[in-house]
Amino acid sequence: REMTEDRVEGGTITYSAAVSSCEKSGAWQPAVQLLHDMAEDHIERATITFNAAMSACEKGGVWERALQLLLEMVKDRVERDTITYSAAISACEKGGAYGPAL
């Protein structure tokens, strides 16, 4: 059991690092794909991982996708924080979608 928990925790850290790397380069599609791979592999998707993917979407100019990720967080009961909402608002702002940002 302990080995399984270590594998899952290690998986979360590894995937989060990969998503963060995608975010830094604005590669939103690989970031979102990694996030979905985590779900398929039954690896916990952490707030920080979603935040990085949402920031990648913001950099990629796909505000709708960032909001979809926010809704996924709500549906999956992943804790949201100030960074989460800031990333969603920034994505909408960059896309000129001021209505959803409000």
Characteristics:
102 residues, mainly alpha
How would you describe this structure to a colleague?
This protein has 102 residues and is mainly α. The protein is 79% helix and 0% strand. It contains six helices and no strands. Helix 1 (2-25) runs parallel beside helix 3 (47-60). It is globular. Residues 1-8 have low confidence and may be disordered.
Brief account:
The chain is 79% helix and 0% strand. With 102 residues, it is mainly alpha-helical. The longest helix has 24 residues, at 2-25.
Shape: globular
Q: Return the average pLDDT rounded to an integer.
A: 87
Radius of gyration: 13 Å
Q: Number of DSSP strands?
A: 0
Largest sheet: none
Written as H for each helix and E for each strand, in order along the chain, the element string is HHHHHH
End-to-end separation: 45 Å
Compute the number of helices.
6
In terms of DSSP E residues, the strand content is under 5%
Low-confidence stretches: 1-8
Helix and strand topology:
Blueprint: H1 2-25, H2 28-40, H3 47-60, H4 63-75, H5 82-94, H6 98-101
Helix pairs in contact: 1-2, 1-3, 2-3, 3-4, 3-5, 4-5
